[in-house]
Specification:
The complex is a heterotrimer of chains A (about 850), B (about 500) and C (about 210). Chain A has about 850 residues and is α/β, with parallel strands linked by helices. Chain A contains 27 helices and 36 strands. The chains are: A alpha/beta (about 850), B alpha/beta (about 500), C alpha+beta (about 210).
Chain lengths: ~850, ~500, ~210
Amino acid sequence: MSDATAAEAAPSTVQVTINGIAVDAQPGELVIAAADRAGVHIPRFCYHERMSPVGMCRMCLVEIDTGRGPQLQPSCMVPVSPEMVVDTTSERTQRAQEGVLELLLINHPLDCPVCDKGGECPLQDQTMAYGPGESRFVEEKRHFQKPIPISDLVHLDRERCILCDRCTRFADEVAGDPLIDFTERGNETQVLTFPGEPFSSYFSGNTVQICPVGALTASPYRFKARPWDLVETESTCTTCAVGCRIAVQSSRNELVRYLGVDIDPVNHGWLCDKGRFAFGSVASPDRVTRPLQARTPSGTTSDIADAEPLRRFQPTDWASALGAVAAAVKAARPGAIAVLGGARGTNEDAYAWSKLARTVLRTDHVDAQLGDGLPAELTVGLPAATIDEACNADTTLLVCGDLREELPVLHLRLRGAARAGTTRLVEIAPTTTGLTRNAVRSEQCRGGEAASVLRNLLDGDDPLAGELASGSVVVVLGRSSVSESAEATAEVAAVISARVPHSRFLVAARRGNVRGALDMGLAPGMLPGRALSASPPRELAAAWGEPPGERGHDATGILAAAASGEIDVLFLLGADPLTDFPDSMLARLGVSGAGMVVAVDSFVSQSAAEADIVLPAAVFGEKSGTTTNLEGRVSAVGELVTAPGSARPDWMIAAELAVMCGGDLGFLSVDEITAEIGAVCATHASAIGPDLAADGVLASGAAFEPEFPPEHVAPARDAYGLRLVCSRKLYDGGVTVGQTPALESLAADTVMRVHPVDLERVGVESGTEVEVHSDRGALRLPIVADAGIARGNVVVLFPSPDIDVGALIDVTAPVTDVRIETRGGEASR
Amino acid sequence: MASYTIPHAPGFVANDAPRIVTERFDHPDSYTLERYLATGGYEGLRAALERTPEEVHGEVRSATLLGRGGAGFPAGVKWGFCPPGVWPRYLVVNGDESEPGTYKDRLLMELDPHQLIEGCLIACYAVGLSQCFLYIRGEMAVAQERVAQALNEAYEAGWVGRNICGTDFSVDIVLHWGAGAYVVGEETALIESLEGNRGMPRLKPPYFPAAIGLYGQPTIVNNVETLANLPWILRHGAEAFTAIGTPTSPGTRMVAVSGHVQRPGVYEITNGTTTFRDLIYGEDYCGGMHPGRELKAFVPGGGSAPWFTPAQLELPFEASEVGPQGSMLGSGAVMVMDDTTDIPAAALTLTKFYAHESCGKCVPCREGATWLERVLRRVCDGTGTPRDLDVLFEVGASICPGDFPHAAVPERGLEPKPFPYQMTTICFVGPSAFAPVHSAMTLFPEEFEARVAPNAHLDTGPSHGPASGTGPSDGSAPNSISEVAIRV
Amino acid sequence: MSFFSEENRSLAREIIGRYPKRRSAMIPLLHVAQAQAGWVTEEAMVEIAELVDTTPAEVLGTCSFYEMFKREPVGKYLVNICATMSCALAGAAELMEHAEERLGVRAGGTTPDGLFTLASAECQAACTEAPCLQVNYRYRYRVDADGFDQLVDDLAGGALDDEIPPHGVTARVRQHIPADRAVGAVPPEAVNEPPVWMAAPAGNGAGSA
């Protein structure tokens, strides 16, 4: 293409000159951004490409000539205009930059030798590059009390602060948690929280990362390392399924810090605090470092286990442990082996276990989900949307749990998109959520009734039907509550697909690599490459041989079978059904009813404590490979530290176990597995390889079209009862939070929340402890009024470290209706 | 509070010059609706309502009514900057008068609130502004009371609110009051404040409030005195208005003259023709200096303006003449210093003011203004050194790079440097902190040199220190900012 | 548990109702809070945050920007002596010295009886009447030492109770928009058309009132 036709093809660029270089800028692009793209660095403190410009620090002043002669202008505030001439190195520019730096430093303490930021400090670096080198300031500097905690995680040193508005802007604009603000005025201006109201944002750690000085420091990293001592690898966070790109940093073989890496399709550089500080659990002293063998069989010793879980076990070596497992496998009846879990590992781990199960253990009883997701065929097979597509759809329909609690950075992206007006959010939920304020419409529903609410809207004369029909639609679809069946959520997909056929879905899968595990076939009836066992792709059939015939059980089926004595060996691949499976009675019966329970885990979880053998697993940061986020985007995870003791990656355990069982998975390294995935999965052929870019690559679509469950009418409601809704909290008391000292104290406490009118019907004061009964069981806990809860719902946190909410849930029932009894024994009215 | 009488405000001095905005000031009940209606009140509005909004806008445009807030931009032109087709549009009345030396708007609000209200209505009608916010400085309790009372009367009588004068023209005027922050007088800071935020200016280019203002909507921000001219213009026509003053500066303007003159006061003067000599020495005006005293210097346009000396007395109130001579007319405030004045100390009172009023948003002002004040204070205290004088100029250059405007000093052969200046800050507060320092040191260098000469021996060692201050920074130091910050 | 009195709560509602966006009422509501308690308490800020739909941190951010809002108790009478140029030229420093001596506190201090807080203030827009001061934002012009002493005596003796309300109350006459006359505030996003007189300005019976 000639230059002339190129210009015609892109008439929307603006020609500017920056330091003599002709630059094609986008219309409306800021000069500083255009300069960045042209490779010209303009120093800056307040400007951040993911936030609106404020022009506060004046560091980016450059000479800009728009035809009226060169003027010093802040390049972060001025959009490009045709024929604009920019000089970032003129003498006047340099003098202005020197002046600003001198002024910034007059009150800056220059305690760089003891400052965590020293060595990676924009103020330090830009002073070296652009500063005057000396100061004429001889007065006393401003003084403040040295770092004050503004939250459990973040410390603020106001002496170092240069008041760039990055943290405060982030809190307000990006996170929506304006809990820090400038206070006072002029030379006394300082960032502060309101007394007694800390900066308890799920996203607080981002402010530390974007602070251009050492004013904000994160308590887990304070005085831990110097930047020049750090070893770093780029990776993808697997704390949840969003797949934020991160830089993992270690010092002396210990993970010390994660930083967000800015990639366009996913996280824009942001992380949630749970992901950012999750590294604390890696170095936990409670890690399982050697194989453990129970002194007594599972299912007989729960009293002892409760008292002192580890006393049940004696350490052993891998050969003995795997030998015992292999013996049990060989002795098992056909179809009596099951694998639960696999969402925590890499794609390679999942592939290895999927292959082990099908080709060596000869079982299809595999499920990476624990009764808390959508049916695997839907997750994998629904017409898929990316996060970007959700952020740019005409309408994005949210039928899922509270994304702020479950997939925080997806929440940030959607919130940002709604604020920017690139999409309209419409929400159907049993409670208000973090995005309710940003939604153009928020329909509240009773638990399990989203599908019927939606059906009524779309079949009636509601304007929503027309809006969805005429524009692009992305549905963020997930389980709003585990106390309603997966079919209730599947029905939502059915209702929308039937009425708005052009809808695309972003399945709000939660667990780290659950999408990758499903893509690798860790679900009954599924095979790697998003294929159904019923019609295995040729390449896979060639590599794996004949799959086990009958479709296996899902998690519910596995636990039910185990409970009735039909499972001889139950593998828990990082799965903790006693904590995470919604129906705790079934989970308990299943785990205790299995013949041998083998837990492959990094901690002795509640379920692992009941196991016969615990095999120590390597975790994130200790192994390399690939992972898949909820969009189906495959990206690389990196290994930076060595696993403690003899812990090893899941795939390696699978490979060794295969050998002990007389089989051979055919690979001896992660790279070989990666290559095999690429070879046998058509979906992953282009996605997997050594050149996986930072952005990752979307695996291409599924090999089949999903079948929707039939639509059925809403479950009959009990007019006087309440419907149980299980909400989730980011800090849920799970392993990541519980084993990360920095996050432990943030875990939420447990109450039961109802609409104030419903509380009035119950007839007790907010805060009273009451008894809640379902057909399955009962619990005592305080009940409080919350206007954000839809009438008729009672909302309880799940999972909860303190309360066995699962005791109320019958996983086979479509919804969980409950009634409240007060101390006097009166039924709720 | 029925028995409560709002106290009267002094300050205005009448004379024989034509009067436009102060014509009712002589009546003790000038602020009542009754007096207002009896003296032509709301006739300008009626005249406006008989014409189309475009015609009213055109009348104001041809009156060349210059903004009286300080920048002197023609109101009719400013109104035209609202982007077509973007609704709603708002009117924000800038009654946050706080520029040192200035207090005409306070008198207009206290003594003739209905005139202001009528002006607001005319502006709203002409430009299609659907709601008006009348932002009065927080410290002006009496002005707030007078305007509140006037608004209550006007609402009751049907002059404000729904279907004004029985027409389709309907507009609410909401009295809003500030809480003490000079910078809020800057129009973008005023909008921030009105939105409930810290009053920190927004960078204007590329978006002026007329395009993106209150709540992101097109917003006209007009000064109280500017709007107070509108009833007269609509009543008498633009031609009558431009017959007063000069073609480039028609009409009158209110000027407060304070300091060392015989009769300080607020005067309504004829724009463009009245000279500073008329104002300071005229029998109808200030009547000259106190007996036995001579004029040393004067600030011609509020605290932010570079200073003049007797050499500039013949200049008229005409921006195109004052600018090239190194200053500006600003907000109509002249502060006069006689030969007893301690020039460095006088400059300090102003620099201290701007340092105190810096909003803290942009670095050169937040850090530089305070630094200037601290060094200047040392110079005034007699503990400064000759090097401090260099520092004052150099810190100023970080706020205002290049030549800073100043008046001519004929006896030293110093040519004037024209207004305006370049600045590294968002708004004019930072440069305003430097203006008095620069003027004082340029016009009266000997007073500064005399102050620091005894300490010349202290300027030893390297000319510049390391890039740090002398303050300890380890937390053992006093923790309260108030021990360090400048609070005067 | 609410901070505002019932009367002020309804006043707050009235004030909020005048603005297209609630947050615009923040400064007026802080004034109402200060009028009620004499200073702005944390409880007040928490309640205002609820009323204007933001966080207490943002209310504190706005509140602390403005000089008039006191976040700790001050005297019944806040005496602000202007120190800016015109007053300084007319002897403001001497007036302040006298005031400090008379009241026995330094600028910034409050007398032990809680009656007076003395403060140095910036330009109060009464420059021709220098030196001037404000007591609870009520002017006193051309104040000399004797005048100051008389003022203090009058205030302490209650002679000025009618004119000067206790600290926190600024204007004692408030705007009240009668419901039948109000046009009403509309959120900007709800409007995308010119006001009716712009659309059809001619012949609407103008000037007949």
